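Quick start: read one record
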Amino acid sequence: MNSAAEFTLGKQKGAALLIFFLILILMATSYLIPVINSSSIKNERDAKTRLALAEAKAALIGRAVTDATIPGSLPCPSASSVDGTSELFAGNACPSYIGWFPWHTLKVADLRDGAYEQLLYALSPNYRDDDSAQPLNSDTPGMLSVDGRNDIVAVIFAPGTQISQSRPSNNIQDYLEGENANGDNLYSGINALTANDQLITITRDEIMQAVQKRIAREVVNALNAYFATNLYFPSPADFSDASCWDNAAIPAGCNSLPPTMEGRIPANPSIAWNPTSILSGSAGAGFWFQNNGWREMIYYAVSALCADGTANCANGDLTLLNQAATLVNQKVVIVVSGRRLGAARATATLADYLEDENATIGNKIFSTINTMPVPFNDFAISIP
């Protein structure tokens, strides 16, 4: 064979080999493209689901903090996958404590997960927005549990795509699977071959740490209003005065006790609260504050320079340590107790309510930060 023929044959073999490799590449690419697309779609759907769950959680916590009469409470779930409206009470109870997320009641968008399914929602019964649930405060535990984690107030679910279910439907079992669909207070975020629910939880601490701040600021506003009229702040009631949270005893009990400078917020100061004050007792404006046990949760310290019998106090002598700075010459300090850290509270024992500096009586120093290696969940605020 001459050299020209050999060259032509070599070119043909090279071309055939190149075509063979191109075919292999195309086959591999045709396999990888669906895998890449599938992974990209799943990531996008998961991101959308996480965002929807986070928005729903924020809406519920916001609603709990701003509730006018039972701070910390949450609405009943919706019974309909269509209207997103919280159900009215059946007597004093929600018709069901698991259902659809009440987006319309919460005044947010109709939130959807990555499979474009509506979110669902389970509520701890003792956090329902009804007077029969009182008292609702830092000591009220969540009754729900997720994968062994307790003290959960609410669970929000993203149902994902259907698994041998019939949709659309108003049956929870057509959206949730396994532990999430059996009607008890135990839920699970662990996916299996027969479950694809995703969820996010709201714990008692997540709600109450925000509510504590709301309560503290409302108390400060009420005290400032009292000062504006009387030019001093009321002396506290004795810390051990159980009548301060006994509604039946309020009309004659929980009195200011000069020269006491630290204790409970009195229901009956030397000059009465304005009836519109939340601190006035168990009637009128003070109904929700008193009946939800917030008076028991609050420690009240006032400077002797600004309490009963003084006038036009310019400065106090209390100190509040916080993250930003040390605040000196404070007139009043309010400390709101977080959830109970011990087995029980002894009503006359300050250390059963407060921690660290806040549990030290008489040194006139309080704190919003933990300065010692002990559990700490107090929230403190001062005037000015």
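Residues 3-66 form the longest helix (64 residues).
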